[in-house]
Amino acid sequence: xxxxxxxxxxxxxxxxxxxxxxxxxxxxxxxxxxxxxxxxxxxxxxxxxxxxxxxxxxxxxxxxxxxxxxxxxxxxxxxxxxxxxxxxxxxxxxxxxxxxxxxxxxxxxxxxxxxxxxxxxxxxxxxxxxxxxxxxxxxxxxxxxxxxxxxxxxxxxxxxxxxxxxxxxxxxxxxxxxxxxxxxxxxxxxxxxxxxxxxxxxxxxxxxxxxxxxxxxxxxxxxxxxxxxxxxxxxxxxxxxxxxxxxxxxxxxxxxxxxxxxxxxxxxxxxxxxxxxxxxxxxxxxxxxxxxxxxxxxxxxxxxxxxxxxxxxxxxxxxxxxxxxxxxxxxxxxxxxxxxxxxxxxxxxxxxxxxxxxxxxxxxxxxxxxxxxxxxxxxxxxxxxxxxxxxxxxxxxxxxxxxxxxxxxxxxxxxxxxxxxx
Amino acid sequence: xxxxxxxxxxxxxxxxxxxxxxxxxxxxxxxxxxxxxxxxxxxxxxxxxxxxxxxxxxxxxxxxxxxxxxxxxxxxxxxxxxxxxxxxxxxxxxxxxxxxxxxxxxxxxxxxxxxxxxxxxxxxxxxxxxxxxxxxxxxxxxxxxxxxxxxxxxxxxxxxxxxxxxxxxxxxxxxxxxxxxxxxxxxxxxxxxxxxxxxxxxxxxxxxxxxxxxxxxxxxxxxxxxxxxxxxxxxxxxxxxxxxxxxxxxxxxxxxxxxxxxxxxxxxxxxxxxxxxxxxxxxxxxxxxxxxxxxxxxxxxxxxxxxxxxxxxxxxxxxxxxxxxxxxxxxxxxxxxxxxxxxxxxxxxxxxxxxxxxxxxxxxxxxxxxxxxxxxxxxxxxxxxxxxxxxxxxxxxxxxxxxxxxxxxxxxxxxxxxxxxxxxxxxxxxxxxxxxxxxxxxxxxxxxxxxxxxxxxxxxxxxxxxxxxxxxxxxxxxxxxxxxxxxxxxxxxxxxxxxxxxxxxxxxxxxxxxxxxxxxxxxxxxxxxxxxxxxxxxxxxxxxxxxxxxxxxxxxxxxxxxxxxxxxxxxxxxxxxxxxxxx
Lengths: 422, 583
Description:
The structure holds 2 protein chains of 2 kinds.
Chain A: H1 4-24, H2 28-33, H3 45-56, H4 73-79, H5 88-111, H6 131-139, H7 142-150, H8 154-170, H9 173-187, H10 194-209, H11 215-241, H12 245-256, H13 267-273, H14 279-300, H15 305-319, H16 325-334, H17 348-372, H18 377-410, E1 419-421
Chain B: H1 2-20, E1 23-32, E2 36-48, H2 49-53, H3 62-70, E3 73-83, H4 87-90, E4 104-112, H5 116-134, E5 146-147, E6 165-172, H6 179-187, H7 203-206, E7 211-221, E8 230-242, H8 243-247, E9 284-285, E10 288-289, H9 290-294, E11 313-318, E12 326-329, E13 334-338, E14 343-347, E15 354-358, E16 361-362, E17 375-381, E18 387-396, E19 402-410, E20 414-425, E21 433-439, E22 448-456, E23 460-470, E24 486-488, E25 492-496, E26 506-509, E27 513-515, H10 525-548, E28 551-553, H11 564-582
Parallel strand pairs in B: 1-11
Antiparallel strand pairs in B: 1-2, 2-8, 3-4, 3-7, 4-6, 5-6, 7-8, 9-16, 10-15, 11-14, 12-15, 13-14, 17-18, 18-23, 19-22, 19-25, 20-23, 21-22, 24-27, 25-26
Helix pairs in contact in B: 3-5
């Protein structure tokens, strides 16, 4: 358990760093908001401002090709003073979002669900980092800081994903369902986290109440609650904008990828170069591919649902249509919760060096393509490939470690011995 | 200010004459500074509304008339333009800019329809038919290039008889206007370029001009009270010819430096010598004649023009009275002097060539050019292919404030941020924007439409800026010359002048912009599909390999037991070893 002064010091330092960066470099937020690695068409703050501008002038922001974010963000941000003139309130808001995310991350770490679940107890459960260290890893991760300074709305999505995970690992069902609904409402793909987190919630409740709730009733109740919460959010959005047009402009854009602005993911260049007649087919295939991981992981790692959810956030950071470094930041901050798996991982050097390599070369190659004109699109594309490969190595390697950890419990005689997959 | 008075008089008297006759044509020539000459051709043909309804065409071209009837078009304006009007040295635009288009092709029309969908369907019919008629790519004016302006354009004709009129506007800034557009344009004229002033129109010279614009305007005109309606078609060609350039012979078109003996040198320069020379500005008006600058002679009068009166004076030249003019013809002609002798008009002979010869002459007086009411320039700021900003600088040199409408029609792949729109006047803190109409673009469906009503105070400069993002397109959406960039249509500015009795309005247009977009590598769709798929397969394969397989200890499986390439090879080697060992 982290001591209270330590926690306060960490939060104060993180807030100070953010507010200092905001005030000492007034042009940094707009510079970062313009970076394709940080802001995507569905999370960009500049586009949010444009949507807000149109919304406050009674023009539907969804009747245009610029604003693709959730409608409820509009009244939320219209309460804050205009960030072009008085950015302080917005800066404090984003700092608070990061601190709340870190708090949720600490709750996840403190719950101990990473090592000890109802059905599984890791043999290395003593090996763990304190929650303050994990939260510090999140708060001082350059990717998180950049996301916060760029005021990308993926910071909000990350907050709701982390809160949903924290509440599920505490067995607080109502808040879990609500934050799950918010995360799915903002970014759509987090809905895939619902089954593993529901299992987690079920396990925690069973442990707490010393008796398992009725399985089917539990699933049905919570699914119904999620659907009601999502329906309420969507209906509220409809009331707010006056029509259902926002569905096509927000989720439709994520599904069909009309905006091919470069990002760190694999989709944009693939669909730039795709032949027109195969576009729909490959859109379907890519989305099926993203969704296919959820059932496989949930079934195979039934005993470690928190690990499944974490791995899925890693999958989202690689394979969704508009990923940014914010998604990678979320995954990379969740991985240290599983400190006990680190000794079993095999390619940590390869993965971390490829992430570092792409973090530095990505912006450089983008500059060569867009500004210097001495490179072409393939330069940046190659870096996104390496970035995705690096992240998928981490995902695969941690999955190997988790399975090996399970094996050590099932067959203690194999501990430390070489194994083979058949 | 003499010349402005002259032009004003001339324009009103043209309008008066036109209403009374069925066919009318006039060429107005005005020498401009820097040895340029502005030539304005104007042709009008009228058809009574009744005859038009019954498809009884006399002067109105049947081909165009039937298209208009089929597409339910009540008023049509079509423009083909090239080059830039240099307002700094040439002054006010001909027809106050009302018969001028932006670079490329511009088309706007009032279409009668019950609903917006029907209006758009008729608009597509119209653009496709006009595309065939004028050999231009007008059929590429689709939904992404069509806007419905609300403040910029006003109907010129009389439309009390029609209801449910829809204004649609489309531009093709990339279109290269050339001779294939001139030929159908001349075919619409009753004399078809065989006689009359239209016989001067030659594609080689017209499209070599520093600035040229061709226009077709069809509008219904009615007498007071709405009776006695006619359909008027006006065609104009305005061009600014560079005299030196136009005089170059066709068989030797490349300009070569003159021998040094023929250049007038500035002998006051220190380096002046036998082989170095600083050429003196020619203070004399150059010598030219019509046949030389148009490359072909004026073949006498079109017989359909009036035989007497103002309407018969079809060639006019606007010069100071002291400028010597010689007429070179074998037929009968008449000369009339107007507006204190600054305009000289000629009635052309029938069936005989006519030429105006202006010798080289040192002038002591000149015409004062009227300055334009506004100057406008627009450019793209910023570097890189990711984003930029547009800056429009509008200058009001006059001593009274000017109200105007500014219209932008942007392609969908240029995404402006309206919240970054700033309009500043250099000597006032007041926001000059009074009214905004904005319709944002939708990807691949429609373009941006922005109209601003602004007031610019006297003797001040207004700067309008906004940021935009450049979209990256699918590789099939780029034209073959993708790295050249995309053209952005000129901004249209209409001056709101409550005192004007003329319903044509005062317009000016900026130049078009060249917008470079980021380009993918066009040569590697297969490579990209293969490489991306490889990375996805690696991720998928790695994860599902772990998920579906079971771990066992390495010593629990026999080496090479359960098949596999390694096992097969080891088995073969073992059997070979056994074979040789025995042998």
